[in-house]
Amino acid sequence: MTQIRSKPLVQAFRWPEIRTQATVDGVITVVDCEALAKGQLVGDLAALESQRQADPNLEHETPIEELFEDQLACADLVLLTKVDRVNPQERHQVEQWLKQELPAGVKVVACHRGEINPELLLGFNAAVEDHLDQRPSHHDHEAEHDHDDEIQSVWLGIERDYDPAQLIRQLQALVQEQEIYRIKGFVAVPNKAMRLVLQGVGERFDYFYDRPWRPDEPRQTKLVLIGRALQPDQIEAVMQQG
Predict the structure, then answer these.
(1) Distance CA 203, CA 239 (A)
(2) CA-to-CA distance for 129 and 124, rounded, in angstroms?
(3) pLDDT at residue 202, rounded to an integer
(4) In angstroms, rounded to a whole number, what is the distance separating the alpha carbons of residues 197 and 188?
C-alpha cells in the first residue's frame, strides 16, 4: 500500500503549471492480499510507520486505515499482490471484501509473484500506435492469450466513425459485462479532420484530438482492449451498434 492521499495528489494535476504539461492516466492502488487475509493492511506495519515518520513530506497524523480507505475510494484499478502466498479460499474472501469496498466498476487484478503486464498500467504511447497500424483494419479482431486466467488483448480496426460520447457509453457497457481493465487507441469522429486519442481505465475515459489525419493513412477507429477472458465476438457486436 502506498502512503499518500490519492485525491489531493490527483487534484494537484489541475494546477495551471502542471495541467498543461502532464495528465493523470489512472489511479492504481496496490493491495497486499496476504496482509488482508491476516486482518492487516500491510505486511510490516512497524516498517511502514518508521518510513512515514522519516519522510517530512508526508502527513503523519492520518491513520493508516483512513489512508487505505481513501486510496480504495480513488482507485481506477486495484492490483492485488501476493496472491501466491494465500490459499484459494483466503484469496476469494479478500477479493469479495474488496468488491464491496470499491466503487462500482473498479476491477481487481491479481498479481502472481509481483508480475504484471506493463500494458495494463501504461496509457497510450507510440508503441501502441505502431502495433495498431500493423493490424488488419477491416472489422478485424484478434485475441492474444495463453489461457483465460492471463491478461489478454483484443485489437479492433473498424471502418466507421463514432461520436465520442456514444462510443464511451458503449465501452462502459462492455466494461460492465466483461473483465476489461484498459482501453486505448484512436477514433475517427464524424465531421472532424483530426483523429481522437481515447484511453480508459475501468469506467473512466479521457480523450483528446492529437493531430489531423494524414492523407496517406486510412481514416479508421483502432482500439485495443486489455483484460481477462475477453470475448472478441461479443465486443465486436457491441462496437457495431449505434
Answers:
(1) 16
(2) 8
(3) 82
(4) 9
